[in-house]
Amino acid sequence: MPFALGLCVVALLSSPALANEPPALTAFASALDDLQDYTVIIKTHEVQGQRVEDRVQQFWFKKPMLAKVVVTSGPGRGGAAVWHGGPTLRGHQGGLLSFVKMTIDIHDPRAESLRGDTIATAYFGDKLAHFETTAGQLSEAPGPVMDGTPTDAVTLDVADPSADHDVTREVLYISRTTHLPVKADRFEGTALVKSETFSDLKVNVGLTDADFDM
């Protein structure tokens, strides 16, 4: 099926600042507090061993914990799913089977991405919580300008890669304008194993619960 939503279940909508937290993460947390809903396009490049997948998804989120994704390009094109928090999601495959809707476990292989992500890790709050709770060294430096947007690059050097899908380093590029992510990269050593680019971000657009029906 795969929905391959690129999303781990998160119980937190925002998290408290850490001691010596990089300023860009503190600003990110503040921006999340002000955010009620958003839509964004996620372009993903993902590598697992010899397998490579490139995918484009439209993602919607509304507090407290409603998420929806539609795969618009790449493997699983036409597949869609909604998640209301909890251990299951509801969705359908693309193509000829798009009329067959089903409820499956959030960790069902059909709902996981190539590297085992689920329908919660696409949410910005999950990325903040991951950086704040994963053991390792955090640092911050000026990032590149992306599509005309200056960024700060927050790097997490992972203390125990075996606890983070063998990832040794993660870099989150945060807009200096919106204070929300524009890109997220993961590395195994020097090899880039996952990259997510966030574009066409629209915040507080007035999404309703009905937008998350399936």
Secondary structure layout plus pairing:
Elements: H1 23-34, E1 37-48, E2 51-62, E3 66-73, E4 80-83, E5 88-92, E6 101-105, H2 124-133, E7 136-142, E8 151-158, E9 169-175, E10 181-188, E11 191-203
Antiparallel strand pairs: 1-2, 1-11, 2-3, 3-4, 4-5, 5-6, 7-8, 8-9, 9-10, 10-11
Description:
By secondary structure, the chain is mainly β. The chain has a single domain (23-203), classed as Clam (outer membrane lipoprotein receptor (LolB), chain A). Helix content is 10%, strand content 42%. It is built from two helices and eleven strands, in the order αββββββαβββββ. It has helices at 23-34, 124-133; strands at 37-48, 51-62, 66-73, 80-83, 88-92, 101-105, 136-142, 151-158, 169-175, 181-188, 191-203. It has an eleven-stranded antiparallel β-sheet with strand order 6-5-4-3-2-1-11-10-9-8-7. A hairpin with a 2-residue loop joins strand 1 (37-48) and strand 2. The longest helix has 12 residues, at 23-34. The two termini are 16 Å apart. The model is unreliable at 1-17 (pLDDT under 50).
| Tally of contiguous helical segments | 2
Rounded radius of gyration (Å): 16 Å
User: Superfamily at the CATH H level?
Assistant: Lipoprotein localisation LolA/LolB/LppX
| Proportion of beta-strand residues | 35-45%
How many domain modules? Answer: 1
Secondary structure: helix percent: 10-25%
Instruction: Output the strand order for the largest sheet.
Output: 6-5-4-3-2-1-11-10-9-8-7
Count of β-strands: 11
Distance between the termini: 16 Å
